[in-house]
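lol forgot to send this yesterday, sorry. struct tokens for the thing we talked abt
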């Protein structure tokens, strides 16, 4: 049965606001057809001891975009968990607007793969990430 527009809208809104996003400053801008875009303003409050953007914060941004993209492929009564997250840090960041663009590249019955590019406001590639996701059903999907 096809999803109604109202159900699709409710599902997309569910991932827009979440506690970590509010803490770090991540905003999910869009989600559709296995794709998602999230943004944040990186600044001194996100610095590691060397003064550059902490890698964990960059992972949070990429993981958010990838998770929201994968969540867009789920059917009713399904949820998911991340099995693996890999990220390559390509440029240091001190103070920048960052954009994470994620896309589901494979979605099987139980396992999927998502890729993500994190770019700055000048279009420079800051990081590249991949995520492997496990689809949960039945009892495993409850309350997740």
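and heres what i got for the seq, position by position
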């Amino acid at each position: 049965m096809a999803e109604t527009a109202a159900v699709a809208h409710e599902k997309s809104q569910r991932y827009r606001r979440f506690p970590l996003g509010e803490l770090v400053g991540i905003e999910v801008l869009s989600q559709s057809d296995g794709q998602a875009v999230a943004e944040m303003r990186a600044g001194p409050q996100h610095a590691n001891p060397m003064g550059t953007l902490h890698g964990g914060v960059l992972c949070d941004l990429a993981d958010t975009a990838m998770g929201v993209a994968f969540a867009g492929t789920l059917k009713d009564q399904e949820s998911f968990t991340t099995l693996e997250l890999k990220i390559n840090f390509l440029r240091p960041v001190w103070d920048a607007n960052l954009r994470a663009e994620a896309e589901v590249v494979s979605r099987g019955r139980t396992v999927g793969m998502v890729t993500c590019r994190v770019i700055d406001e000048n279009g420079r590639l800051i990081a590249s990430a991949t995520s492997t996701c496990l689809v949960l059903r039945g009892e495993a999907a409850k309350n997740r």
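The helical segments are 5-14, 19-24, 55-71. anyway ping me if u want another try
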